[in-house]
Specification:
There is one protein chain. It contains four helices and eight strands. By secondary structure, it is α+β, with helices and mostly antiparallel strands. The longest helix is centred in the first third of the chain and has 22 residues, at 10-31. The mean pLDDT is 88. Strands 1-2-3-4 form a four-stranded antiparallel sheet. The protein has a four-stranded antiparallel sheet with strand order 6-5-7-8, with no helix packed on it. The chain crosses the membrane at residues 12-33. Keywords: Membrane, Transmembrane, Transmembrane helix.
Length: 194
């Protein structure tokens, strides 16, 4: 009877070892870049909140906020406790809106004691910048928020102009700190802190 040649020759075993270890190395290397995978869903993820970020906000950070459940809109509103509250003077508050059914969070500029449209003015290195705003949808509020981020971080002075009259906006130290807290919490909810 004729003897068969062995299938796993020493040369084949060496080739298999090289292939297996190089494949495992590539998989391990690519696992470090998991956040760069393609998003082919076609969904707008601008306002998407991860479960871990939402849970952190609700369990740790929400202690700084007054919570209002809006069943008619299916939202929960979070207003910072240290914001300026006035019965007569126009105020503009940053409010975080959580939509639990869509796992999304929105930022909203809540105007009190005045009517839209408004202007927000700020002095940036001697140059006055003016932002006109007439309320709008989630994207409009988010765009205004992004435009004001640098000024909030730098503690610049703001003015609110309503119907031709100007008022200081977010002027006190407590208000500035509250504004920064809302900004940081909202950016953390959207995982945009870097």
């Amino acid at each position: 009877m004729k003897q068969r040649d062995p299938i796993f020759t020493p040369e084949l075993i060496k080739i298999l070892k090289i292939f297996i270890f190089s494949a495992l190395g590539v998989v391990l290397l690519l696992s470090f870049f998991n956040s760069y995978r393609a998003d082919n869903t076609g969904e707008d993820r601008t306002f998407r909140v991860a479960d871990s970020d939402r849970i952190y906000f609700q369990n740790v950070r929400s202690i700084n906020y007054e919570r209002e459940n809006r069943n008619d809109a299916g939202m929960v509103l979070f207003r910072h406790r240290q914001r300026l509250q006035s019965e007569s003077r126009p105020t503009l508050d940053l409010v975080i809106l959580m939509n639990p059914t869509k796992d999304e969070a929105y930022i909203y500029f809540e105007l009190k004691n005045a009517e839209w449209p408004i202007q927000i003015q700020l002095d940036s290195l001697g140059e006055m910048k003016t932002y006109d705003f007439a309320n709008g949808n989630n994207q409009d509020h988010f765009s205004l928020f992004k435009n004001l981020l640098f000024a909030i971080e730098k503690d610049l002075d703001f003015e609110l102009t309503v119907e031709g009259e100007s008022y200081q906006l977010w002027a006190g130290e407590k208000e500035k700190q509250a504004l920064k807290t809302v900004m940081e919490d909202y950016l953390r909810l959207l995982a945009k802190t870097d």
